[in-house]
């Protein structure tokens, strides 16, 4: 790992929103008097009813619960829109850049107010009330942000399902939270290709009896089937709707949204975030980590179907009155220069993307980057997976012309926002390290037994104390919330990640230590892919592990045991790949399928994934002890066949 050090640029050290001395004072107050610290920070939001309570959280079983500012009341859309109207009603709130470079839209805060109110009225007229769950299955179009904010205006809880998920994945998420309303589009458009969203919804609804209304935004104008009485087009409803809607006062602890994410076991869980704590965290971290300054154009390339899109395309920037750029397209369409052309076109100051995109672009050569001036860029960000030092250096040297600090931000769907990241005006950078915890964040490393490790060391990453943006529960299963995150190391939140801490206290995230893999920054439970595989009529058993992949970070390596009488073939391999794409979505496409007549199991029948991981990594010389296997000879066969499969 690179140990190069990039000091804070002199200009930033002097005039960043948070300089080294401000940071030291804030860390000190957060440590010595957290109550005062959080009371002060929470003043960045507009409260309808001021809170008197602050942190009432506990990670211990006896009094377990997460609660912040519990008796305060606020409304998220009022914080993201209304309070900015007097000072920046005519400032762009959202710049939308379409898939086609000729397609764009600028939406001011005043227009955003009108659009969100109209959307809220449409939802209300179809029976959506405070507390109802509304499923959004939408492409990256402004209406996605309008719909999110409209839900918050009513106090309804949105559940966004990434528009790349299959009908089955959508159906299970609709069922889990019992949505009565789905908002979708006729089609999505990415890289010039159309995605049949409405048709996917129709297929999903064959398996969901709860849904009464489907609101369809017309993105491409495609001819789509509409079910009488159930489906309606958004356009005419929007035109007829009133342009004002009073924001609902919500308790700080009322649910804001559900977002499904993968874990190491079973089905995806509905991560539930709160109104007050979440918004505070999204807003604070957006300003602190990106050194956001009024008037700047800020661009996070994430899709709203992921948590990064929630916190850093919509809620954080809009709460701060920023101009946020929303991009419908992909980095390589019309060509590999697209990101940098968009930066020039809209004068982007802050650019936030994922290492997988950087690695893919790096491979295409520097000329695509240098075709654009990128003169407006000031801060660059990275999220979603560890950034390898080579990609970091390229991002810094080529994209940022050596001028722009890179903020490598570590966080998770569960954390609501960034927990470990540099502050551009205060933190010296080391390529590949997410650096130091933000204010009031208490990471610690533990060994397998839960013993806290001191100093420079490596271990499992836990967080010792609650922070306002922490998830509140797994929707509908509070016991699972406690069980998943707080029982491995009692009294601590366990992240599922491993990390190294160096002598300067910098954190280097080494990746997941559980059965979760990170494919192109998308989180995937190996169990989900396995259950999709075993649902195929010819498959008896499957074991899925991550493998190193030069662009995606991790790829999906599946070992498949066929039913007796079934013959392995290339054709069947292709069928299985297509099957998984169809069951879950293209992000779950297996990179390698290896037919395995036997899997390495202990005598009690547990699959030893450690061995499968090593084989997938090509490290067959370091398999460790295999003597506890019921049949050690399967390992030789797996190794021999792995050469054939790749
Ligand atoms: O393994 C860590 C990795 O992504 C996981 C969280 O995935 P998800 O909930 O989908 O959220 C992604 C967007 C925040 C983490 O457990 N991860 C995220 N950011 C980083 C990272 N690994 C290393 N460095 C990062 N900056």
From TrEMBL:
One of its GO terms (biological process) is acetyl-CoA biosynthetic process from acetate. Mg(2+) binds at residues 534, 536, 539. Its EC number is 6.2.1.1. Its cofactor is Mg(2+). Residues 82-466 form the AMP-dependent synthetase/ligase domain. Pfam families: ACAS_N, AMP-binding, AMP-binding_C. ATP binds at residues 384-386, 408-413, 497, 512, 523. Residues 528-606 form the AMP-binding enzyme C-terminal domain. CoA binds at residues 190-193, 308, 332, 520, 581. Catalyzes the conversion of acetate into acetyl-CoA (AcCoA), an essential intermediate at the junction of anabolic and catabolic pathways. AcsA undergoes a two-step reaction. In the first half reaction, AcsA combines acetate with ATP to form acetyl-adenylate (AcAMP) intermediate. In the second half reaction, it can then transfer the acetyl group from AcAMP to the sulfhydryl group of CoA, forming the product AcCoA. This is Acetyl-coenzyme A synthetase. It comes from Sphingobium psychrophilum. The lineage of its organism: Bacteria, Pseudomonadati, Pseudomonadota, Alphaproteobacteria, Sphingomonadales. The gene is acs.
């Amino acid at each position: 790992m690179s140990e190069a050090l990039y000091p804070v640029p002199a200009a930033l050290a002097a005039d960043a929103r948070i300089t080294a001395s401000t940071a030291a004072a804030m860390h000190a107050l957060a440590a010595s008097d957290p109550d005062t610290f959080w009371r002060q920070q929470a003043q960045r939001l507009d409260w309808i009813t001021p809170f008197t309570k602050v942190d009432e959280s506990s990670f211990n079983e006896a009094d377990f619960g997460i609660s912040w500012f519990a008796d305060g009341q606020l409304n998220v859309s009022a914080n993201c829109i209304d309070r900015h109207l007097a000072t920046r009603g005519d400032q762009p709130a959202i710049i939308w850049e379409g898939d086609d470079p000729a397609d764009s839209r600028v939406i001011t805060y005043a227009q955003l107010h009108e659009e969100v109110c109209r959307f809220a009225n449409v939802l209300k007229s179809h029976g959506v009330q405070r507390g109802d769950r509304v499923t959004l299955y939408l492409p990256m179009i402004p209406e996605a942000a309008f719909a999110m904010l409209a839900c918050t205006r009513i106090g309804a809880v949105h559940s966004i399902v990434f528009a790349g998920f299959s009908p089955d994945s959508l159906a299970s998420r609709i069922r889990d939270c019992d949505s009565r309303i789905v908002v979708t589009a006729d089609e999505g458009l990415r890289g010039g290709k159309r995605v049949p969203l409405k048709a996917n919804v129709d297929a999903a609804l064959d398996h969901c009896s709860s849904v009464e209304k489907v609101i369809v935004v017309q993105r491409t104008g495609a001819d789509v089937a509409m079910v009488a009485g159930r489906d309606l087009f958004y356009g005419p409803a929007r035109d007829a709707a009133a342009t004002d809607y009073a924001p609902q006062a919500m308790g700080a602890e009322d649910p804001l949204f559900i977002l499904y994410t993968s874990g190491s076991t079973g089905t995806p869980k509905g991560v539930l975030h709160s109104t007050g704590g979440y918004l505070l965290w999204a807003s604070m971290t957006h300003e602190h980590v990106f050194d956001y300054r009024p008037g700047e154009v800020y661009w996070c390339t994430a899709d709203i179907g992921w948590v990064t899109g929630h916190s850093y395309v919509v809620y954080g920037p809009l709460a701060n009155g920023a101009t946020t750029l929303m991009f419908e397209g992909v980095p390589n369409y019309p060509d590999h220069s697209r990101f940098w052309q968009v930066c020039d076109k809209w004068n982007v100051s802050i650019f936030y993307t994922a290492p997988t995109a950087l690695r893919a672009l790096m491979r295409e050569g520097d000329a695509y980057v240098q075709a654009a001036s990128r003169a407006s860029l000031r801060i660059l960000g990275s999220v979603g997976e560890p950034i390898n030092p080579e990609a970091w250096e390229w991002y810094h040297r080529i994209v940022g012309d050596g001028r722009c600090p890179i903020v490598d931000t570590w966080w998770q769907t569960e954390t609501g926002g960034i927990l470990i990241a540099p502050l551009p005006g205060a933190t010296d950078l080391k390529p590949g390290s997410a650096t130091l915890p933000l204010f009031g964040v208490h990471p610690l490393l533990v060994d397998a037994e839960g013993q806290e490790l001191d100093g420079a060391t490596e271990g499992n990453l836990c967080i010792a104390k609650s922070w306002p943006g922490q998830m509140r529960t797994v929707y509908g299963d509070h016991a699972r919330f406690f069980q998943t995150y707080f029982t491995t190391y009692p009294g601590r939140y366990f992240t599922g990640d491993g990390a190294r801490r160096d002598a300067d206290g910098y954190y280097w995230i080494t990746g997941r230590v559980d059965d979760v893999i990170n494919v192109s920054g998308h989180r995937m439970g190996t169990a989900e892919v396995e259950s999709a595989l075993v649902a195929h009529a010819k498959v008896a058993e499957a074991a899925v592990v991550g493998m190193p992949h030069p662009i995606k970070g991790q790829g999906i390596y599946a070992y498949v045991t066929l039913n007796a009488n079934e013959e392995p073939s290339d054709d069947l391999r292709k069928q299985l790949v297509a099957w998984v794409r169809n069951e879950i979505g293209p992000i779950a496409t297996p990179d390698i399928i290896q037919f395995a007549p036997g899997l390495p199991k202990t005598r009690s029948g547990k699959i030893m994934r450690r061995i499968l991981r090593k084989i997938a990594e090509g490290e067959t010389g370091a398999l460790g002890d295999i003597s506890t296997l019921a049949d050690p000879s399967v390992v030789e066969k797996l190794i021999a066949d792995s050469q054939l499969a790749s």
